[in-house]
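Review session, final week

We close the course with one last complete record, chosen because it touches almost every idea we covered. It is 3-phenylpropionate/trans-cinnamate dioxygenase ferredoxin subunit, a protein from Propionibacterium cyclohexanicum with 112 residues. Go through it on your own first, then we will talk.
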Amino acid sequence: MQVAQLDELTDGPVAVEVDHPSEGPLPVVLFRLPDGEVHALLDECSHGAVQLSEGDFDAHAGTVECYLHGSLFNVCTGAALNLPATQPVPVYPVRVEGKHVLVDVENPLKEN
């Protein structure tokens, strides 16, 4: 499903809402790395249930820090990199077609 335009992903994380056929609207956060790759995570810290899109994004390290308790997550894999978070954040497949960013929330990536 198309969720954003590529040129919107220039100044840090972008929060979007994506309709999941059976779960309803899901909060998703998009990240664009310096190499141009775009990644999508569930926009919710696995520890504190706050929006990751409000945290500090380090594009060069490929990490986002939860603003509430400081947990770092890898934006490519969703892996929790430090405590207090111990669980990964769901990662969704992203496809860029021309200027359009598409995210598949029905098929989260399994290895995170």
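Two points worth writing down before the exam:
The chain has no helices and ten strands.
The mean pLDDT is 95.
Good luck, everyone.
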